[in-house]
């Protein structure tokens, strides 16, 4: 119990919930201060710090559950926790004071560029500099990339090449059908990943790729024995703490959306920055975990975190946003711009080539980082 409810965890929960109560009771008064740019920036930074602190708390508890439950269940819990935060923030922006029909697409595209270029580029480069060529499970990685091509292409490329409602918007029938197909495909992928083919997502031992097939039988034989060792009380308590970290994000998301809309409008900033901010809030903790995994020579875990995060993002966020848009009669645009489409395709091709072998090459990490730098430049100077 003491190992779970550490001093840092208790302090984090107290500070986060203190901010929630302040905005619950004094929210209207605080919103009246937004007209003062200096105060608005200060309040924004305070809310942002609170939400990021809560996101780190979510990742910490989810990561502890990950180690208790093992791969790929643990990583799945981590990515699902993160995606739930992303959906919360996107929906808050959709229902903010300004119309944000592209916020879902902006967020998902930003996640792709950050996760698949910045974070994986750092993982490949830093892991390679420390450990040389790092091994990973090529077959499992290819299934991730295949899912990314399918889900990303269906949700964000197809809208620009169909009639739909025009301007990259699905019709109601298209939105409902595509949401169902994406959920179905993602469900099959999870079943594939978590049952008969778990061995494809586990770190191979150096120079012994053939051991993966033996691991399949070992996993199946030890699964029940391993589950007995997991403390149900600890899992339950960590789950409660995890929910206690996620709920404040839900309650503060409207305030963040209002401040972001105000800031982008007042400072005449690119609208895409709203999606970039969501991606940074949501995936900074998980990105740090992925880089640490690569530095610890656990490159498969880094892949599971990064590719798994993006697959979960598209597989869950797209249907959620489309369905909410249908229910609330909100315009939802997933069609990418020409520049975004080109960056999307280059990222996919580069990723397929980067993970076409069984070991990493540090120079490839630099290529991914350069592509991310191009993305940042084009945000401010399109």
TrEMBL record:
Keywords: Membrane, Transmembrane, Transmembrane helix. It holds the Pfam family Na_Ca_ex. One of its GO terms (cellular component) is plasma membrane. This is Calcium/proton antiporter. GO terms for molecular function: potassium:proton antiporter activity; sodium:proton antiporter activity. It comes from Sphingobacterium mizutaii. The chain crosses the membrane at residues 9-27, 39-59, 71-95, 107-129, 141-162, 174-192, 235-252, 272-291, 303-327, 333-353, 360-380. Residues 40-194, 239-380 form the Sodium/calcium exchanger membrane region domain. It comes from the Bacteria. It is found in: Membrane. The keyword DNA-binding does not apply. It is a multi-pass membrane protein.
């Amino acid at each position: 119990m003491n190992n779970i409810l550490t001093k840092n965890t208790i302090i984090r929960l107290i500070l986060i919930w203190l901010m929630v109560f302040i905005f619950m009771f004094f929210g209207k008064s605080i919103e009246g201060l937004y007209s003062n740019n200096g105060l608005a920036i200060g309040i924004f930074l305070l809310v942002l710090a609170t939400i990021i602190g809560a996101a780190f708390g979510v990742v910490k508890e989810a990561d502890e559950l990950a180690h208790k439950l093992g791969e790929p269940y643990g990583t799945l819990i981590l990515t699902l926790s993160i995606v739930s935060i992303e959906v919360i923030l996107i929906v808050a922006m959709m229902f903010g004071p300004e119309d944000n029909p592209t916020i879902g697409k902006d967020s998902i595209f930003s996640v792709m560029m950050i996760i698949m270029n910045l974070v994986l580029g750092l993982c490949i480069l830093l892991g390679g500099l420390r450990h040389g060529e790092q091994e990973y499970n090529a077959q499992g990685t290819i299934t991730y990339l295949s899912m990314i091509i399918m889900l990303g292409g269906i949700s964000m490329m197809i809208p620009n090449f169909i009639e739909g409602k025009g301007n990259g918007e699905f019709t109601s029938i298209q939105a409902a059908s595509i949401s169902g197909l994406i959920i179905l495909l993602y469900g099959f992928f999870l079943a594939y990943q978590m049952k008969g083919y778990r061995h494809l997502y586990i770190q191979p031992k150096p120079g012994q790729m053939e051991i993966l097939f033996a691991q399949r039988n070992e996993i199946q034989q030890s699964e029940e024995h391993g589950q007995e060792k997991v403390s149900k009380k600890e899992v339950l308590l960590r789950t409660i703490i995890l929910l206690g970290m996620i709920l404040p994000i839900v309650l503060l998301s409207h305030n963040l959306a209002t401040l972001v809309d105000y800031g982008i409008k007042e400072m005449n900033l690119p609208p895409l920055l709203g999606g970039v901010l969501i991606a940074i809030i949501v995936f900074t903790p998980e990105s740090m975990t992925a880089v640490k995994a690569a530095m610890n020579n656990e490159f498969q875990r880094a892949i599971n975190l990064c590719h798994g995060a993006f697959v979960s993002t598209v597989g869950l966020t797209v249907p959620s946003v489309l369905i909410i848009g249908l229910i609330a009669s909100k315009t939802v645009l997933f069609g990418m711009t020409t520049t975004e489409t080109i960056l999307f395709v280059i990222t996919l091709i580069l990723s397929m080539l980067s993970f076409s072998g069984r070991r990493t090459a540090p120079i490839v990490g630099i290529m991914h980082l350069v592509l991310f730098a191009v993305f940042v430049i084009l945000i401010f100077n399109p």
